[in-house]
Amino acid sequence: MTAKPVVLVVMGVSGCGKSTVAALLAGRLAWPFEEGDALHPQANIEKMTAGHPLTDEDRAPWLQKVAAWVEEQLDAGQSGLITCSALKRAYRDVINRRGSGIVFVYLSGTRETIAARLTARHGHYMPASLLESQFAALEEPTPDEPEITIDVGPAPGVIAQHIVEQLNLTG
């Protein structure tokens, strides 16, 4: 899979483990890694911190930044990893606007599993109270999208290993 550069977009609802798994993969593969949350405009961060879900309009400039980061990696001829909730098909279409070079890695879990993780998480601006809005917006990837689905039940290191194996990745 890595004969040509590929960018993995580690996606899923808040609390599914995107940052942890992507960081493990980046370390293992020695690929550039971008925390998608860091690309949010300050207004989005303030809105989420206040407990309000983002609208499609709120997300639009952020998704453009995510897409631009993906394209920068591919244009430079290098693989990379970025985290992004990418909850809706329309969002993934923006990120994958060039139509190649991306694999969405969907970290899938039950509301109960992810809610338990969110309550234990500290230092993130996204409150657990917004989890239901994340699931309400979620449109799981379909077979016509470049994606793999990974269950979030195992430990993060095991999840990262499953991703490496499924995609036959090397650093």
Note down, in words, how this protein is organized.
The chain has seven helices and five strands, in the order βαβααβαβααβα. By secondary structure, the chain is of the alpha/beta class. The chain has a single domain, classed as Rossmann fold. Strands 2-3-1-4-5 form a five-stranded parallel sheet, sandwiched between helices. The chain starts with 6 loop residues before the first strand and ends with a helix. The mean pLDDT is 90.
Topology:
Elements: E1 7-11, H1 18-29, E2 33-34, H2 42-49, H3 56-75, E3 80-83, H4 89-95, E4 102-108, H5 111-120, H6 131-137, E5 147-151, H7 156-167
Parallel strand pairs: 1-3, 1-4, 2-3, 4-5
The CATH architecture term is 3-Layer(aba) Sandwich
SSE class: alpha/beta
Question: What would the principal axes of the Cα set say about the shape?
Answer: globular
| Helix content percent band | 40-55%
**Beta-strand content bin:** 5-15%
Number of domains: 1
Termini separation comes to: 11 Å
- Computed CA radius of gyration, to the nearest angstrom: 15 Å
How many DSSP H or I helices? Answer: 7
Q: At the fourth CATH level, what is the homologous superfamily? A: P-loop containing nucleotide triphosphate hydrolases
Number of extended strands = 5
Strand order of the largest sheet: 2-3-1-4-5
What is the CATH domain class?
A: Alpha Beta
Q: pLDDT below 50 for ≥5 consecutive residues: which ranges?
A: none
Mean pLDDT over all positions = 90
CATH topological fold name: Rossmann fold
Order of helices and strands: EHEHHEHEHHEH
Sketch the major β-sheet.
Answer: 5 strands, parallel
